[in-house]
Amino acid sequence: MPFSAQPPASGERYALSASLDNARHLSSLLRAVHFQDHATCLATASGLRVTVEDAKCIQANAFIQAEIFQEFSVQEESVTFRISLSVLLDCLTIFGTSSLPGTSTALRLCYRGYGYPLMLFLEEGGVVTVCKINTQEPEELLDFDFCSTKVVNKIILQSEGLREAFAELDMTSEVLQITMSPDKPYFRLSTFGNAGSAHLDYPRDSDLMEAFHCNQTQTNRYKISLLKPSTKALALSCKVSIRTDAQGFLSLQYMIRNEDGQICFVEYYCCPDENVTEAEL
Amino acid sequence: MRFRAKIVDLACLNHFSRIINTIAKLAKTCILRLTVCKLYFILSDKVANGGASMWCELSQGNFFDEFQMEGVAAEHNEIYLEFVPENLWRAFKTAQSAKAVKIKLTNKHCPCLRVAVELPSLSSSSRIVTHDIPVGVIPRRMWNDFREPSVPDFDVSIYLPVLKTMKSVVERMKNLSNFIVIEANLSGEMNLKIETDLVSVTTHFKDLGNPPWASEDGYQSSAQGRDVESMAEACIDIKKLQQLLAGQQVNPTKALCSKFNSSACELQLVGSFAILSFSRISVFIFVCLKVNIFTAPEDFQYLYF
């Protein structure tokens, strides 16, 4: 095998180096935030965060904790780079996406630092693939400043409850209206489409409701086109936490359990739709 | 000019329809050449369309229980027909549980291949579904365009890896680039490479083995005395390669890729070869793809199946 096909010795200095027994753990999480071509990656000692944004209104973060990797080391305090997510996903799934039992793609990932390409070494069944993906200048990310102390309302649902609702959303409606309230209707999803309005209520004592902490009645509208990409994460997740802050910013946190039972999180932040007058509510 | 044939055996029918399916995936139109003992499916694409060509040779005795043909003349006892393989594949799709399939050349309003499928039924009378597939009869003066391609001289020949792995690698690479570089050497190593502004990806296969046929007549020149480590390479249209791999309905038991070079050009050439062996039938489909027409107009990649 030529020298270039050998993964680098661990003695070499890399700003970021990591290895993973099953590359699918990474690719499935990245697919959950793949609604724009470019992603910004931030690696710290605690793990890797991949951020995708669109229209300055929505941000998706996939968190892959350091524990998910067999080896994960970051030489600097934090390492940031921007990368084409579709290229990265094509590289990670080069041996196919199907999950045949007993076969898994091993991954080694290295990044030397600013200006260098991201190197991926993938191996399956004795076949080695080396990918060099050029990195780009990281862009300024949106800061939603969404901290847990500012949360007004919070609901944790089992994902299957929301999956059905999202699959049946009236896509002719421009917005999805979310009502969260300590009193009836507790948690309501509404759409206003060509064929009329639809309201979907979740009772507080539903089996799907894992936690219900609502302090005040809040009604906010969100563009459906912005929320639609989050269904990719919803499809993989087992639980979802829906939170809003005082300004109506929405946070959707998806808890995703991979094949080995490890837990990862994908988070979506979305701005409320501004064109809401009091009269419409 | 007459032609009629009949398939009764279910296994033969299945093999035949799988071959038609593979051909339908590779070619929009193709030539059916009928002789007394053999039938050939031939695709010889013009360079402008990517230059893929294919040669598939079947012995009629391996498939048909009845086979009668009468060519244009006694001394040219052959028939050349042009048809759309997709149409023939549709006709055979309905024939999966057929008791018998009859194929006949007819001329009602235009020349047609009539595929009559006899389907089993619960009552005593059987059901017959008939497909008329329009064909064009190729005049004798054009027969020379469809001669068997010769195997070019090559530098390296190598067995291909498991086609499923290769297929998925080529499929991903197709998303990233338009051209793929295939390189191989005489010590059983093969690499698939793409390189673009965004990304470069190389997949390394090893321990593939090199077929020993280099010593056969006519195939030995360039491959002999070659450094076993040095790579021969060719750059080809990735879509054509992907199409070929995706169209694989018959699982080749052995696939072989040989690379050759044209003395006139710097760039070297690729060829590959697969022998499909069924329990009692051997099928050779010869496919050849035109290589990177931008850099080397005279270079070909050959893939034989």
SSE inventory with pairings:
The complex is a heterodimer of chains A (281) and B (305).
Chain A (H helix, E strand, L loop, with lengths): L15 E5 L3 H8 L6 E7 L2 E8 L3 E8 L5 E4 L4 E6 H8 L13 E6 L6 E7 L2 E7 L17 E8 H9 L7 E6 L6 E7 L2 E7 L6 E6 L3 E6 H4 L3 H6 L2 E7 L4 E8 L5 E8 L11
Antiparallel strand pairs in A: 1-5, 1-7, 2-3, 2-6, 3-4, 4-18, 7-8, 8-9, 10-14, 10-16, 11-12, 11-15, 12-13, 16-17, 17-18
Chain B lengths: L1 E6 L2 H17 L3 E5 L3 E7 L8 E7 L6 E5 L8 E5 L1 H9 L6 E8 L3 E9 L7 E8 L1 E2 L18 E4 L3 H14 L2 E6 L5 E6 L3 E7 L26 E6 H9 L7 E8 L6 E10 L4 E9 L9 E5 L1
Parallel strand pairs in B: 17-19
Antiparallel strand pairs in B: 1-5, 1-7, 2-3, 2-6, 3-4, 4-18, 6-10, 7-8, 8-9, 11-16, 12-13, 12-15, 13-14, 16-17, 17-18, 18-19
Helix pairs in contact in B: 1-2, 3-4
